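Write out this protein's structure.
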Amino acid sequence: MARITVGVLAGDNEGIIAECLESAAWADELLVILDDRSSDRTAEIAHSLGARVIPHRFEDFPSQRNFGLEQARTEWLFYLDSDERTTPALGQEIRRRAGQDDCAGWWAPRRNYIWGKETRHGGWYPDYQLRLLRVGQARYDPARRVHEVVLLDGPEGRLQEHLLHYNYTTMAQFVAKQRQYIDLEARIRLQEGVRPRPRHLLTLPLREFWRRYITLEGYRDGWHGLKLCALVAYYYGFQVTRRLMQLRRAEG
């Protein structure tokens, strides 16, 4: 039977790291790649649960994940974020699929819980994530510093059991995370040669809101869906465009 590492990128996650690792107790190895700026009890808690903890200087997410792949001592690595949980059924399916020789990676459907409510529409479900990776046949694209992209050397498959994601428990947490992403996303668009126009400050947020709320049926989540679609449109339509315009002006 193939052996599996569950890898977690962590940093100042003492409040959630235990529940995350406990959900992956089925794994052959627990590996925590710790942001070396972390100053709380994350490492101590992870050690107490049997995880191998390796501090590593954080540069960007692809570099951190590629480092994790290099540290795995098993044939397969399943990446789990600190605010995610696996289920026993998902663990069993991962073990079964890892025993097959036909794929280099497997996508897991993810259920998102935002502000305590499962969000089923607006592009938030099934939210497939490529997380089960055959070591040596997968790397993260270094050009994608946010919302990382896996480069696979081989075919891929899809799991049936769900990964659980408790991504934003409060509005303040949501806003803080989006502010972190704004500059990263704007710099990606800058590298891609995107040239925004003043009108895009209006048209891009409207287009994103229409896509999520109407096309992807975010309205089916009621007031929760309306609020979420509007906020995503504001941050990824207006704020990212505004930051991209600032970066272009700085370039001259």
